[in-house]
């Protein structure tokens, strides 16, 4: 998977390559050795094929230059007080592993390949400091080059990845979309193996949550303001005419969706908690409405398919998918003129999966799924007298009163972004009391009566 280098990083690297470094002065000051300088000059500002030949001819020497060895420290460690030299060497190191591919596995064979680099990730707390940025770029390239060819566990990479993920998460949390894009593209370069994705998920408060926040901004809904997602209030026209919400550019959106898609390869591991913690189905349904390009639509559909396909996820996620009205949206998508064959295949598979599920559901199942999703909308059962007459006692008693308990939980929230939810919950309680008056005490024990009275006393509720 190859992505174009982020513009800001590419510009930074070019500027550093063009800087004159007083190498002889660095030797006289003891910052680097004569041997270091000889090796640097042999590969600096030369043609790529010449650089590759030089490195491949004396690979051990260049491994020692970058990582240290019997002959001394890494040049990055010996030049630690010279920021200009460290920056230059980080750019040169990236050029070396790109132009001489055999160097990357040789570096990873070193007993401690990340020792000179990992401390540089915490060089400063300034997200624009070139040294951590350049270090993360080098490490992402080094690790991603090794990952596809690695069928065996690599404890050294597994130890380094969490530290690299943590640094990149500080960029995704910044307000600078250029820095966010650097981090997300490096995530994509790293998320090529099962172990890398598992470690990424293990750190999800650092790694996944900021990415979801970017997607929420693009969808026009903050973390605590999701009514737009659930109501489907925005349209593709508003997205394409005014750009995505919150200033999220199409390139950043695509790269974030790409990283989440890669994570979704571990659907069985991440699916349920992505929904529980992030309400991923409502978010992706809204993003599908807004998606301005087939390439973003393809990633959205493929991610949903990866999350909904595992048998361990279906009983939890398929009911929520219907509650957020994903089936209707898929029907609308099928009416568009789509050309991407993978997108069309995924759309067909998802449509069939959801159609098979919904055709097997009763009205009670649909109502239960909606309540258990934690979001209520004015779907038909809420105002259907026959539904309540036939199902009120079942709702109150089934699965140890699971649904009334969930209604209570929903009603305890303030729902500042969507007061309609409280109005619907009060409606349902009224129907339960009307159709099963003998169960009134059961509802009072759950605290529903007190909450209803509290809401009635607040003229702003409902």
Mean of all residue-level pLDDT scores: 89
Give the end-to-end Cα distance, rounded to a whole number of Å. 50 Å
Number of helices: 27
Helix percent reads 55-70%
From the alpha carbons, calculate the radius of gyration and give it in angstroms.
28 Å
Give the SSE order as H and E letters.
HHHHHHHHHHHHHHHHHHHHHHHHHHH
Biggest sheet: strands, sense, closure? Answer: none
- The number of strands is 0
β content, as a range?
Answer: under 5%
Which regions contain 5 or more consecutive residues with pLDDT less than 50? 224-228, 233-243
Assign an overall shape.
Answer: elongated
Would you tell me the structural class of the helices and strands?
mainly alpha
Describe the structure concisely for a colleague.
This protein has helices spanning 7-17, 23-28, 34-43, 48-57, 59-67, 75-78, 83-99, 103-108, 130-146, 155-172, 177-190, 194-202, 208-219, 227-231, 236-242, 250-263, 267-278, 280-290, 294-308, 311-323, 326-334, 341-359, 363-372, 385-412, 420-435, 440-446, 448-457. The protein is mainly α. Helix 9 packs across helix 10 (155-172), helix 11 (177-190) packs parallel to helix 16 and helix 13 (208-219) packs across helix 18.
What does this structure look like?
The chain is an all-alpha fold and 462 residues long. The chain is 69% helix and 0% strand.
Write the layout of secondary structure elements.
Elements: H1 7-17, H2 23-28, H3 34-43, H4 48-57, H5 59-67, H6 75-78, H7 83-99, H8 103-108, H9 130-146, H10 155-172, H11 177-190, H12 194-202, H13 208-219, H14 227-231, H15 236-242, H16 250-263, H17 267-278, H18 280-290, H19 294-308, H20 311-323, H21 326-334, H22 341-359, H23 363-372, H24 385-412, H25 420-435, H26 440-446, H27 448-457
């Amino acid at each position: 998977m190859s992505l174009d280098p982020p513009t800001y990083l590419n510009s930074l690297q070019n500027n550093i390559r063009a800087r004159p470094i007083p190498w002889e002065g660095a030797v006289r000051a003891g910052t680097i050795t004569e041997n270091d300088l000889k090796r640097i000059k042999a590969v600096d500002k030369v043609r790529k094929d010449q650089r590759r030949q030089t490195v491949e001819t004396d690979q051990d020497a260049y491994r020692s230059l970058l990582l240290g060895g019997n002959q001394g420290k890494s040049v990055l460690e010996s030049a630690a007080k010279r920021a200009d030299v460290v920056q230059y060497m980080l750019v040169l190191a990236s050029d070396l592993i790109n132009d001489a591919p055999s160097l990357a596995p040789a570096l990873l064979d070193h007993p401690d390949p990340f020792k000179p680099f990992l401390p540089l990730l915490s060089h400063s707390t300034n997200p624009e400091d070139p040294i951590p940025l350049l270090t993360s770029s080098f490490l992402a390239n080094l690790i991603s080059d090794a990952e596809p060819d690695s069928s065996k566990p690599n404890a050294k990479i597994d130890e380094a990845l969490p530290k690299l993920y943590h640094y990149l998460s500080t960029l995704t949390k910044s307000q600078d979309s250029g820095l966010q894009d650097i981090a997300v593209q490096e995530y994509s370069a790293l998320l090529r193996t099962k172990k890398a994705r598992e470690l990424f998920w293990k750190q999800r408060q650092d790694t996944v949550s900021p990415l979801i926040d970017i997607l929420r901004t693009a969808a026009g809904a903050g973390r605590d303001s999701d009514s737009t997602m659930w109501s489907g209030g925005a349209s593709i026209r508003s997205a394409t005419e005014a750009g995505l919400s919150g200033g999220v550019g199409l390139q950043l959106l695509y790269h974030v969706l790409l990283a989440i898609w890669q994570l979704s390869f571990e659907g069985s591991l991440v699916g349920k908690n992505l929904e529980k913690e992030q309400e991923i189905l409502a978010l992706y349904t809204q993003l599908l409405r807004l998606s301005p390009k087939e390439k973003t639509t393809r990633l959205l559909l493929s991610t949903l398919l990866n999350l909904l396909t595992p048998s361990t996820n279906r009983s939890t996620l398929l009911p929520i998918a219907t509650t957020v009205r994903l089936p209707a949206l898929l029907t609308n998508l099928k009416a568009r003129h789509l050309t991407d064959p993978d997108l069309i295949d995924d759309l067909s598979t998802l449509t069939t999966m959801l159609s098979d599920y919904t055709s097997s559901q009763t009205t009670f199942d649909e109502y239960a799924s909606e309540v258990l999703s934690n979001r209520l909308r004015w779907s038909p059962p809420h105002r259907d007298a026959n539904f309540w007459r036939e199902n009120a006692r079942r709702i109150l008693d089934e699965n140890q009163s699971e649904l009334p308990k969930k209604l209570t939980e929903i009603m305890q929230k303030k729902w500042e972004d969507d007061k309609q939810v409280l109005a619907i919950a009060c409606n349902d309680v009224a129907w339960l009391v009307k159709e099963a008056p003998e169960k009134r005490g059961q509802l009072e024990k759950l605290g529903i009566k007190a909450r209803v009275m509290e809401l009635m006393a607040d003229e702003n509720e409902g």
